[in-house]
């Protein structure tokens, strides 16, 4: 039986978000406020996000307390919120409807005739941003919800018209199965989130279910280069459009790929064997060529003009924390990247290697004990394109340290493969090491999904150069 859309209920006028400072929750709060709801929220600590929401007129509570649940009709919580959270417990005691974040996002999607969901183990934020830039260039006035900050829309959310909705679709805990896409992009399928998924087959089945959420008159934009994606396409009941760089059978592809000194590509965009556009990117790496083909194929399928696709992709300069240049000091460039999976690390370092530099320093902060332990072999082989790798302590995120894995073990395993790693647990020690050893012409990349970006900012500050905001 299909669930009633809570956003159609006249009884829901006030909504409270537990964990409102999160990148997705903050955007959803903005969307609901814009369509007329009274919105409040709480988070453990103040942040740029919570301060922005306060400026927008949303009541923010710092810290979780049952007193924050006051006269609200609906409570939204993230998957990270525990069942014993005081606000969640109080809401349920009072009989207030509570829903998880992904359910709300799905119900918002259902209000739009065209909902685009961009999925994949990696590349979601960048590809979602590329799609957004093309649709903005096409004057389609999309509502946009991104898992990162895009300067072109002033953050992670844009309130647009009521026809097009663009969002990322994360596979963690199968949250994307609560969505209602009319067009879905599937970039890649790899092992990740193994604290939830049993194995790659479990992950593939989740993506298969997600793709089959698209109605029969909708579209799947699928990467033909990815074996795991290709292996399940025969089980899809809707229209499939393929893209890729290496596949000979893909409908959309790229030819004559060339890179400039910044590692950014220019190429001929090919559809069904014919050149349709000349694309110039302003983000580095071959992986972004693939992401841009996916974005182009999706937007063309929706009716966007080829010239708008060209201009939209060229206007895209990246999102925050995706090969983001933080500053340059003494001719040492500092870049920050969100890469936290072995495939992402390889792609980012390959992109870095194509830039004009003397030496690549990679400061990597592993993200979660589970991922580090279960993908240890893959991590150990991911850093060969770096000259020097500095491993910090593991960022625990939602997990507890059981003592089964340690960053020093990862550093040793990397050394067994490429002999270019050291372990330094303390950010201050890492900064001092970089100050003593990095030289003019070098590239320093801070990498990970935690707070490792602070290393680059500290390094720039120590050199008396303010980071780029």
Explain this structure to me?
This protein has 469 residues and is α/β, with parallel strands linked by helices. The protein is 32% helix and 25% strand. It contains 15 helices and 21 strands. Strands 8-7-9-6-10-11-12 form a seven-stranded mixed β-sheet, with helices on both faces. A six-stranded mixed β-sheet has the order 16-17-21-18-19-20, with helices on both faces. A five-stranded parallel β-sheet has the order 3-2-1-4-5, sandwiched between helices. Helix 5 packs across helix 8 and helix 5 crosses helix 9. The longest helix is centred in the middle third of the chain and has 16 residues. The model has no long low-confidence stretch (mean pLDDT 93).
Unreliable spans: none
Q: What Rg do the Cα atoms give?
A: 22 Å
Number of helical segments with 4 or more residues: 15
| CATH topology-level fold name of the largest domain | UDP-N-acetylmuramoyl-L-alanine:D-glutamate ligase
Distance between the termini: 49 Å
Average pLDDT, to the nearest integer? 93
Superfamily at the CATH H level of the largest domain? Mur-like, catalytic domain
- Tell how many strands the DSSP assignment holds: 21
Taken as a percent bin, the fraction of beta residues is 15-25%
- Give the oligomer, counting copies of the same chain as homo and different chains as hetero: single chain
């Amino acid at each position: 039986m299909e669930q009633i859309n809570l956003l159609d209920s006249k009884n829901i006028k006030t909504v409270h978000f537990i964990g409102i400072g999160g990148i997705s929750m903050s955007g959803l709060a903005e969307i609901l406020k814009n369509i007329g709801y009274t919105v409040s929220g709480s988070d453990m600590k103040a942040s740029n996000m919570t301060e922005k929401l306060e400026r927008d007129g949303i009541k923010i509570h710092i810290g979780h307390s049952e007193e924050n649940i006051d006269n609200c009709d609906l409570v939204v919580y993230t998957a990270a919120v525990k069942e014993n959270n005081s606000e969640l417990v109080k809401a349920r005691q009072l009989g207030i409807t509570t829903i998880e974040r992904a359910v709300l996002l799905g119900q918002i999607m259902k209000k739009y005739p065209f909902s685009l969901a961009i999925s994949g183990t990696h590349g979601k934020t960048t590809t979602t941003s590329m799609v957004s830039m093309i649709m903005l260039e096409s004057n389609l006035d999309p509502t946009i919800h991104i898992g990162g900050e895009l300067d072109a829309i002033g953050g992670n959310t844009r309130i647009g018209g009521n026809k097009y909705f663009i969002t990322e679709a994360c596979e963690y805990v199968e949250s994307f199965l609560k969505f209602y896409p009319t067009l879905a992009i599937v970039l890649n399928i790899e092992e990740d989130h193994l604290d939830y998924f049993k194995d790659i087959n479990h992950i593939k089945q989740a993506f298969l279910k997600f793709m089959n959420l698209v109605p029969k008159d909708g579209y799947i934009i699928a990467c033909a280069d990815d074996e795991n994606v290709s292996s399940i396409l025969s089980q899809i009941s809707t229209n499939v459009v393929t893209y890729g760089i290496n596949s000979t059978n893909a409908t959309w592809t790229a030819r004559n790929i060339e890179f400039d000194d910044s590692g950014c590509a220019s190429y001929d965009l090919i559809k069904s064997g014919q050149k349709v556009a000349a694309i110039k990117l302003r983000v580095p790496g071959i992986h972004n060529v693939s992401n841009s083909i996916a974005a182009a194929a999706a937007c063309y399928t929706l009716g966007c003009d080829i010239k708008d696709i060209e201009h939209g992709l060229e206007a895209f300069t990246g999102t925050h924390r995706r090969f983001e240049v933080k500053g340059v000091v003494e001719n040492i460039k500092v870049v920050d990247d969100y890469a936290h999976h072995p495939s992402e690390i390889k792609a980012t370092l390959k992109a870095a290697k194509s830039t004009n530099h003397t030496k690549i320093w990679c400061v990597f902060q592993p993200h979660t004990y589970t991922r580090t332990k279960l993908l240890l072999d893959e991590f150990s082989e991911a850093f060969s394109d770096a000259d020097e790798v500095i491993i910090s302590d593991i960022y625990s995120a939602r997990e507890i340290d059981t003592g089964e894995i340690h960053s020093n073990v990862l550093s040793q395993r990397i050394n067994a493969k490429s002999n270019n790693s050291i372990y330094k647990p303390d950010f201050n020690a890492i900064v001092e090491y970089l100050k003593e050893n990095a030289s003019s012409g070098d590239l320093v990349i801070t990498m990970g999904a935690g707070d490792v970006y602070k290393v680059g900012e500290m390094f720039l500050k120590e050199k008396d150069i303010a980071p780029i905001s």
